[in-house]
Amino acid sequence: MASKAAATLLRRGGKHFFTRYWAAKTKSSPAASFAPSLSSFVPNPAGTGAKSYLGSSRLMSSDVTNGRFMAYSMLYHDSVAFLVSNQLGIPVFMASEPKTPADVAKEFNLSVRAASALLVTLCRMDVVQVVKDSDDSVDDIVYGLTPSAQTFLSNRKDLACVSPFVDTFTTNFITPEALLECSLPADEKKDIMSEHLEQDDETVANNARHFMAHMNAQSYCCAKALPKALGLDSVNEPKTLLDVGGGSAIYSIEAIQSNPNMNGIVFELPAIKPITEEYIEKAGLSDRVSVSPGDFFNDPLPAADYVLFSNIFHDWPDSINANLIQKAYDCLNPGGKIVISEILLADDVKSSTPAATSMNVIMLPYTKGRQYRPKELFRRLQKVGFTKPQVINLVDDYDLVVGTKA
Ligand SMILES: C[S@@+](CC[C@H](N)C(=O)[O-])C[C@H]1O[C@@H](n2cnc3c(N)ncnc32)[C@H](O)[C@@H]1O
């Protein structure tokens, strides 16, 4: 069953959901009740310093007025404007030279008012910047792409392009009705695995390929940051990174490229192995990154010095993750490290970043999991014997939770 697994477009109640479900025979373990002292843990709040790109001092300014509640009601439309702009290809169109709202309107057959509204939102988001201002209407401003939009939004052929991730939310936007539907108690019991396996092999394969591109875009900057964050770039003897559910192999590729002492193994479902191998081949690293086919619920993991779970734990409930942590402990060499990469909720909940709370909601229709807090993962790690648990900021809203096998 596991070998047939893949992500899929799932039609539910007229809405498409791009599921992250991968068929697997799961076995759960009893929920942990172990509660170690947290006093030795590094008290880094999750996502520290990662909020500024969304921050607005006005939004947070007052407890005695209603402004922020109105703002939260409306911010959804900013996201829609961003998604639609990217779907139309506005950043690609603006890559070569600055444009006015009239230029954008003409290119995409929009009204100037609509093009201008999209550009104003993109300007607030640092996708575009004002190149030539107008003292009169905002409709007359000349905008150019910002350097980061040039890098991450302007060239769909570039591996750095984040658009495969953005596109997923354009085609699978969670409407209020869809959120309510997947929040029903009955939805928790639904066997989504069986539903998506009912599709033909070609659909399953296409969806898997699409999902790998989505994950590759999501993990691009994290993977670039991993070697330094973990010190993989400076290990001075041969070490192996095992990337469990490693998808596009992007973490292994970056780790290996950072240091000749590093080797990589991607543990992936047999059905996904050929797609993973394509990414490795494109990077020219087939001799140093291998793909070990298997099902992480039913098969043992290969021996390694670092075991990485990136965006895996938030797909599954706590009890299943406890099994994965035990498997990691069993396969690690002495002194080895488990590395969990996730957008974490903050320990106090309140300090969670908007990306963390959004991802937590996104998990409702797509998975059986949620975002976790450092302290809950610390407890899990300690329960199986990992020591020195710590949180290391990886990039933006992503953190690593790391534990060491004594
Ligand atoms: C959310 S993606 C994460 C991909 C990658 N780690 C990243 O962060 O870019 C989940 C990955 O886990 C893999 N996966 C799901 N169930 C699995 C299983 N039972 N055994 C092995 N891999 C599995 C999927 O094929 C998919 O590539």
TrEMBL record:
Active site: H314 (proton acceptor)
Stretches assigned to coiled coil: none
Keyword list, A-Z: Methyltransferase, S-adenosyl-L-methionine, Transferase
GO molecular function: O-methyltransferase activity; protein dimerization activity
Signal peptide: none
Residue ranges constituting the O-methyltransferase C-terminal domain according to the UniProt record: 205-386
Source organism, top-level taxon: Eukaryota
One of the GO biological process terms: methylation
The UniProt record lists the keyword Ubl conjugation: no
Name recorded for this polypeptide: Uncharacterized protein
